[in-house]
Amino acid sequence: MSIQGLEIFRDEIRLMTLKELHHLGFGHYGGSLSIIEALAVLYGEVMKVDPKNPNWEDRDYFILSKGHGGPAYYAALSLKGFFPKEILYTLNQNGTSLPSHPDRNLTPGVDMTTGSLGQGISAAVGVALSHKLSERKNFTYCVVGDGELNEGQCWEAFQFAAHHKLHRLFVLVDDNKKQLDGLTKDIIDPLDLVAKMSAFGFYTLKVNGASVAEIYEAFEKGKAQSNQPVAIILDTVKGQGVPYLEEKADNHHIRPTQEDEEAIVATISQLEKKLGRAVM
Known about the structure:
This protein has helices at residues 3-24, 29-33, 36-46, 70-80, 119-133, 152-163, 184-187, 193-199, 212-223, 243-246, 258-275; strands spanning 61-64, 140-145, 169-175, 178-179, 182-183, 203-208, 230-235. It is of the alpha/beta class. It has one domain (3-275): 3-Layer(aba) Sandwich (Rossmann fold), CATH 3.40.50.970. The strands form 2 sheets. It has a 5-stranded parallel β-sheet, sandwiched between helices. Helix 6 (152-163) links the parallel strand 2 and strand 3 (169-175).
């Protein structure tokens, strides 16, 4: 897929993420929107997957350690063809196959149940190690949140991955500068994530997390080396791609006010006009 194609896919994911959350009436807007460009590149070009055979043994694995980004993940999976887009409107409702946080037993395309922060990256490291021991060529991709890195378990997993030279493991850090209770620098300052991940033994790159071109290039560079796990620090903002939500202070989980609703609906309309279609 071309860069232009990835940008269209990005807009489609953003549109469907907004529509499913708007239909639900509340949810994790901020941290869902900030990973959309990364998801567009992964599912639009980088990952080897088969929507008709979600359990294909030769597939690449994706684990969303920051499980609250599920709405964006579900939008990407539906647009890729893992399940009908109509199902997005059942998000977090009774009997749904799309719970608030991903569940591998419920949703086609989900490789690991996540939500308890810190655990997803540990599972991803285990998956990557199993593939190495089995001499398989599968890549493992894992998205962690910057706030999630408060969990010591993450750093134990990183150290283990580097020691075992899991070069087919890619860790994407969603550095959106916020977590549930405020700014990351005010809660536990993450300091220089590039320096830290490099010190932990990762081949580390920092990119503009709003640029599908830069993200794609980072994957290409990461795959060109064969001795270290790869960390891509995504310089993002919570609510990315929706200026009104980017500027909203408490945008981790939103129960929209009337003003919020108007801004969300306006953005949905803008994206539909830009794409030239409603998508659904």
